[in-house]
Every structure is written in structure tokens, then in C-alpha cells.
Hints:
The protein is α/β, with parallel strands linked by helices. Helices cover about 25% and strands about 30% of the residues. The chain has five helices and nine strands. The longest helix is centred in the C-terminal third of the chain and has 15 residues, at about 165-175. The radius of gyration is 16 Å and the shape is globular.
Amino acid sequence: MAGFVRELERRGGPALRLEQRAAGGVGCVVWDAALVLAKFLETGACPLARRHVLELGAGTGAVGIMAATLGANVTVTDLEELQELLLVNIEKNRHLVTGSVRAKVLKWGEDVTEFQPPPDYILMADCIYYEESLEPLLKTLKDLTGPDTCVLCCYEQRTMGKNPEIERKYFELLQVDFELEKIPLDKHDEEYRSEDIHIVNIHRKRTNFPS
């Protein structure tokens, strides 16, 4: 299948080289929200060295691989059909990784035992676009998070069709079990930022865990 490479500059050395696919589903290209979240990680706002990081709906793996270049031990996850692309991109950038990175299949809503104990960070870029996937995604988030897990969710606000309604429903459901805090735009990378791309810092509500 035809591929084309997207370069993502890094502050600390050579750019990431990410293969994308001209055909295939939404997971085959690097979306703007993934670029914004990857570059936010580089600001150092979240210490990643030697931290256990899981990326959900990784697609090309851009965000997770960036985290691995910052010293994190990363598992990038997506559906079976995206594993080959994830492996290609891990290999393309392995020489830049200072932590570790591996790819695994994780289907939202299914058993997550093999991903325990809870990671320090869960990364998500543009994972909110199918209404049918909201409940399985929320189940996976609840099953994966511990009291100290930080979830960074980056999404592009879309005004077309059902997108606003799906987004509203997602955050409404999320707030049942999680606390949300929007990261101000001035904390995003100064170049990779946009008024309609938001990063939300999400934690489990303390009341959900026995003290």
C-alpha cells in the first residue's frame, strides 16, 4: 500500500519519521491533535523519564513514540489492522528512543488484564469521533486507570454533523468517574497549537478508590 512519510520535528535532535497510508481508515494518518499532543509532551510539563505510558488509539504511533524519545516506557495500542503500521514506525524511529516502545492490540471495552498494573500516563489523541465507541472507550479508561494515573486527552473540536453532540456526551459520561482540567493554550508548544485543539488532563475521582 502506498505510504508517505510525515516528519515531526523534535527539540532535542533529529525529527521523527512517521509513515502514513494513503488508503485505509482514520488510523492511517497523523492527525493534527496527535502533533499538538506530541509537541506538548516535549515542553516537559509532564515528567516522562522511566514512566510507564500507554497510548490508546495510537494509529501511526506519533504520540507514544515521541514519549519514548523522552525516556518513557511506552506501549502503543490500537486494533489488529494497525499493528503493522505501528511496527513500521517503531522501527523507523527506534534509534531515537531513550526509553522503550512496543505495540500491542487493545480493543476498547475488552479485557485489559495484560496492561496492568495501571500506567503512570495514558495518552489519547483524537479518539472521540464515533458514538458507538464512547462506552467501550470509557470502560477501558476506567479499567486501566489507578488513583495516580494521568490521562492526557487531546482532541480537535469539530463543528460538523454529529461531532459536537458526541463530544458533549463523551465529557458528560467521563465526568461521572473522572476529574477534568483543561490545559491552557499558552502551555501548549508555541508553534504546534491551535484554538480548536484542546488538551485535557484527566484523573480518576478519589472517591472511586478505597482510602
